[in-house]
Write a structure and sequence with these properties.
Number of strands of chain B: 4
Largest sheet of chain A: 5 strands, mixed
Radius of gyration of chain A: 25 Å
Strand content of chain B: under 5%
Radius of gyration of chain B: 22 Å
Number of helices of chain A: 3
Oligomer: heterotrimer
Shape of chain A: elongated
Number of helices of chain B: 7
Mean pLDDT of chain B: 89
Distance between the termini of chain A: 32 Å
Mean pLDDT of chain A: 95
Strand order of the largest sheet of chain A: 3-2-1-5-8
Largest interface: A-C, 88 and 101 residues
Structural class of chain B: mainly alpha
Distance between the termini of chain B: 63 Å
Structural class of chain A: alpha+beta
Strand order of the largest sheet of chain B: 1-2
Chains: A alpha+beta (about 220), B mainly alpha (about 240), C mainly alpha (about 600)
Number of strands of chain A: 10
Order of helices and strands of chain B: HHHEEHEEHHH
Helix content of chain A: 25-40%
Largest sheet of chain B: 2 strands, antiparallel
Amino acid sequence: MRWWLPDAGSTFAGPIDTLFLVILIITGIALVVVEVGLVTFVIRYRARPGRKAFYTHGSTRAEVIWTAIPAVTMVALGLVSNHYWVLIKDKKSIPPNAYHLGVHAKQFEWQVTYPGPDEKLGTSDDFTVRNQLHVIVNQPFAVELTSEDAIHSFFVPEWRLKQDAVPGMQITAWFQATKTGQFEIGCAELCGLGHYRMRGRVFVHTPDEFKAWVAQQAAGGTE
Amino acid sequence: MQTTTMTDAMRPPVPAEPGAGVYSNKLGMWVFLASDVMFFTALIGSYIVLRFGMGSAWARPGAVLNVPLTGLNTFLLICSSVSMVKGYAAIADGKKYFLRKIPGKTLQDGGLKFWLLVTIICGAGFVGVQLVEYIKLVGHGFTPTGYREGSLLAEHALADPVKYGAGVAGMYGSTFFTMTGFHGFHVTCGVISMLYLYFTKVLPEKYSPQDYRGIEVIGLYWHFVDLVWIILFTIVYLI
Amino acid sequence: MTSVAHARPEAHGDAHHGPTSFWQKYIFSTDHKIIGIQFLFVSLFFLLVGGLLAMQIRWQLGFPGQPLPGGGILPESMVQNGVILPEYYIQLVTMHGTFMVFFAIMPLLVGVYANFLIPLKIGTHDMAFPRINMWSFWLALLAGLIMLSGFFVRDGAPRCGWTMYVPCSARPDLSGATISQKLWSISIVVLGLSSVMGSVNYITTIINHRAPGMTWFRMPLSVWSLFITAILAVLALPVLQGAAILLLFDQTLGTHFFDPAAGGQALLWQHLFWFFGHPEVYILILPAMGMASDIIANGSRKPIFGYHSMVFAIIGIAFLGWIVWGHHMFMSGMNPTLGSTFMVSTLLIAVPSAIKVFNWLGTMWRGNLRFHVPMLNAIGFVSMFTIGGLSGIFMAATPVDIPLHDTQFIVAHLHYVLFGGSLFALFAAIPYWYPKMFGRMMSERIGKLHFFLTFIFYNMTFFPMHIIGMGGQMRRIYDPTIYDFLKPQQPLNVFISYSAFALFAVQFLFAFNFLWSLKFGKKAPQNPWEDNGMEWSLPNPAPHGNWDRTPNVYRGPYEFSAPEAGDKDYLPQYVKLPTDRDPIPAPLPAGGH
């Protein structure tokens, strides 16, 4: 039974999970204040014979305080969040040494195109594999997302990576895996009947393993 | 008791504050027009986003559409707005008759009956001209999906793809027919409403200088429809 | 037009006698109260439909591949050997959302309570345009029936989510739905007309028809919230109508609005839909907040804390609501800079909602709390809405939205605000104004049992969804267990499903209470809650035409425990004290009377 976010597997996971925790603490405090307040008032101010309610229309000071504190908190949260947002999603943030792959989503599979031994996409030694994403650990990668038909969404939970694949658009999403092993891709946008089974497998290799795999694929090897 | 109830029920109860300062029918029409603005905004906004997101250019103005004829049609619609205003002014002065000779003058004096009829005829004329235009366009091959294969326009587009926006004809057709079609629908509804009022209220002389709310309210609608057309004419036909 | 209405004596002239035939009184009625009640029955029916669809969803998620009990009655296109098929599952999730949003919650909050409460609470006889109001109901019913027919036509119901993203919804070859997708567009256009007609009425009536003394800042918050909601509706629904028409034309006329191959843009749909969709969710919560305010003030025997702030918060939420729509599209591929701007506006909209929650607490503070069923549900509303609102902050922070977007975390959030929020507020409002509608009280005992059981099972159902969403379970997937990373969470899915079944079963208490009390409920006294609103000056049920003579308003709506009230702890707006003077009527507007 899993009770928390998936194990962190990319460089994004650290900042995102920390931000998640910060928000959890802030909203947790707010929640406790409100719920404890409610329960306290329900008990303390319940009607009893001989009691009267305190007649007041409010307090401007209270309004100012409970407007200012949430407002300031939200602005601060926005500034911090935006820093990481730009880092993750902005085109200019894609590292120049990122290894580019093509990911073409269609009903109901992921077609991943690798640049082959020459490490250049769009050349004759490129090859395409279905539903398998192979990457190198600790190396920036960028997937160029396209779609054949409906809108799909490329989602790898451990990498905190999600990006819609939209027909008519080419969208680049980058990441850097930090753990070797096997993970999964899920489709995170309802795309039709087979949306639930658009499952891909992710393999994070050491550099040598990856090279060997590419060579094997280029030589016409089995998947 | 009964009289008080009837009076209170027939008009807005005495408000604590002047409310909007306009009577309810007019306020209601303003609110409805606000919603209609949003509807056309969705259509026109989509048109703008799509057109300026296209890879190649739209067909040149006048290549496919008959700008002079539509220009005349636009003038007709504007005239109908003018006649609407004249009708409104006429009833405010209590003039309900068709035409009345003014003693000592050769011109005749038109009242609400005259001017509203002019408006209806101009409005119907606008719709008629648009229908004729549609039929002609479809005949030449211009449809909501683009230039029909084998049609005259398709041939033109092959010969001169830039002038005819060959690459984007599908979107051109889609947006043209949708926007002008819904506008035409609104004009038609206006004409039908005016006809209804004409026969049930204007001819039997039910309006008076004290109460001509229906004319004012339909007038507002009519001016709105005219304004939308001026915008559409500019962005669809002229640019 | 009103001038034509003069000719129909039954519409107005007989505030005493009213319409006489059964058809005019109960079926084709122009009385705002009857129209409100008509909306109530029809919407509760659609709430049931939505609930039944949800039960099937929960069955499949909890027990994937297991035959659905009673599934045998469904056709082969939906279940095979009793097992829900994937193509049926996506119809279920789509139509559950569609019916709940458009045909249950929105008409329950607006169609019922805007119609029923507004003229009563501002002191007038009926809406500004009673016949248009009647049409508003019949068009809403027609739209609902058109939408329902989608299940019964060839190829079944629409299935691209209630959000109907293109290209899925524009292309039958992608979705599988043919006729029903077109019916969807038609239903939406008709519903939009109904909504606009209603809103024109609500806005005009509130602006122009308030009784003498009912100034803007003496209106109850329920009326304020319905007023602002109507403005949102009148401006937002037409945009959805436009989008639905473009979608319909793509499917029927072969146009290319959303066809990327011909220059159309898939994202255009999302922008149009969410430009409507975000104001729509505020339409779904503001009336709930307004009615909860009235009920909490009543239950606390205290004025609402910070009435003016509450009004400005409603206006602030509505205003900001127009510029946050992109937060549904952070992952969509739109320019990330746009994402930043939407993040800012979205974080800011948390502030007026927070202000409201604090003011509700302030109202209860040092009150003399009465825990009648409406008050219990209103307190439940505050408590659950707080959770729902706070969970939204996670998604507002765009980097955190990355793992959470399109997961069950969103489903948890939206259900906390729509069920924990809006529906609990309805569970408060329905018994509260039931006496005014039907002249009887709903049972307090059943109501209390319903509240406690609903509250418990509700949280058991929806709180764990946050956890499953964090774990990564995507939305609208037929079988989570095919994913290794989701298998460990399946016990929670099972737990949620059992809780959901219990939650649904408990609602029969409410249904029974509602229906049984129509005939056998205790006859209601005139002002059973000792409330201050104008509506309580009338007998129960309120008569056709409401007041014989336009009433006067002497004070604000929340003068509970005011010193002037003497030994009573409430002081209605319509009560004239010796120290009060009659309000001076304003002059009639020019141009016609």
